[in-house]
Structure prediction request, 252 residues.
Amino acid sequence: MIVSSSTKKPKIHSSAYVAPSATISGDVTIGADCAVLHGAILVAEGAPLTLGKECVVMENAVLKSSGGSAISFPLAIGDRCIVGPQAYVVGATVGNGCFIASGTKIFNGAKLGDGSAVSVGAIVQVNTLVPRGSTVPMQHIALGNPATIYPPDRAGDAHDRMNFYADVFNIESAQDVRAKAAQTYAKFLRKTHAQDKALDEHKNVTPPPRRGEEPPPTQAADVGGVVDAMMLELQEMEHRRQEALKKQGKKK
Prediction:
């Protein structure tokens, strides 16, 4: 499903593949030769979401950007990256050639250097920098700039270093901070998605080529029109065959 949101429409390169059951909403740009598979969700909420060229977003992965009046978290994923099944990536900057494995979570303000990897079930927390070529091991937590890697049994230590609600929702910690975060976020989402509209007809667009690149191929011809032309030709051939049979019958 392709959805316009807050007057913003997705821009999908003509060479990209988006599965029919994927959801692409708002100010989303999908680069050349990408593949977005079934059940994947790419949603821009108040900030742009950009997917570079030759990327793969696998089944049921969720990619989101977020931005309000006080704080903004665009999502930018570089070229030739893989986002695994059921991964969750929000408001982060991902370099070129990165691998984001199944079930990982990467949060607002995080940055992954070129060629880095986040392994199965790992977490990259808010405002964390994963250096170029680094790997966050399975089930581990990356936190800090540069990242400190915490094993699962030290999750509490990582939690104590965070100020999650202030960094993500711009709300200082207090006894009712969770309720305030829900109230604030619900209001933001209602406003952001109030005018969402599914686009019945959507054609991939061809962005201008980058400097030094060849212009991309034009969009493929309309398949329905090709099929109609073939049917007309087949009907004409059948008509000619029937006429020929009639003539042969008269000669006998």
Summary: The first helix runs from residue 155 to 160. The chain has a mean pLDDT of 82. The chain has two domains: 2-198, 222-252.
